[in-house]
Amino acid sequence: MQITMKNISMKIGIIVCLLVVSAFSIAQKPTKFFNSNSPGNSPEFFAPGIVSDEFGNRDMAISPEGDELFFTLQHFGGRIISTILYSKLINGNWSNPEVSSFCGKFSDLEPAFSPDGKRLYFVSNRPLHDTSTEVKDYDIWFVEKQNGNWTKPVRMTEPVNSAKDEFYPAITKSGNIYFTRNMDEKDEDIVVCKFQSGKYDTAVSLPAAINSAGGEFNAFVDADEKFIIFTGYKRKGNYGSGDLFISFNKNGIWTEAKNLGDKINGPGLTYCPYISPDKKYFFFTSSRGYFSPPFAYRQSLKDLKKLMHSPLNGWDNIYWMDAKSIIEKE
Fold this sequence. Notes:
By secondary structure, this protein is mainly beta. It has three helices and 25 strands. Strands 2, 3, 4, 5 and 6 form a five-stranded antiparallel β-sheet that branches. Strands 7, 8, 9, 10 and 11 form a five-stranded antiparallel β-sheet that branches.
């Protein structure tokens, strides 16, 4: 066959199209975690025996590239131990979780990536100066990725941090930062510091469609600020002491928050909502899984110890499920 410029152009066009389709397919492929199968439409333990184990585990942060994972290990609700663990995807396999390079001395929790993955925000009660060992209130800090390593932690200044406790940061593409702050007149509110003209504005509580008299906290905010998922504490109609709710942003106005239902919420506290960057998976924390008598048969000491060393011993665990049914509830 005679080769012409037209033939060459057509072949180049086909190759480019194939490369684009291939790249799109790779980008859309959901991340696989610890060789586990993708969850369905009902909550399941996340990485049982690795992440969800006999200890208390809560909150999640996955890098935009899908190759780094952070979560918090807590003992006795963080009153004794609270530290951020880290795992990395290496040659297709996730490393065993270890204490993050910037943690392990003070109480640290609630990691959150910036949308570009260059910063990791977290909450800590560490002192302002390395020479001090005196802990302070909980503030929002961050580390930056430089040459493949995380830098020394930096405390965010006012008006983001204050003399009160700040928790659960969520950073959006606009630069706005949402977080939980202790309030004088009630337990907690979800607030936002808008990023304008290169600096943060004073923190403002989100409207009554989200915050109530009962207290709200731990909000995951979509990077494009299209929706927010948060915990509402002691709200009317709750299934447990704290339930997860979702609200959507309609032309700059948050819609009335809706309870995510009893498939997700249940007895006790359901909190720490998180949507993976590829929007494939929905994560949350709950103590729903626990054993209690009467048992189906008489338990031996070996049976009881096995239960106490399992994720069903009453400590918090991280659950996950398909995210589509959550973010399309509108």
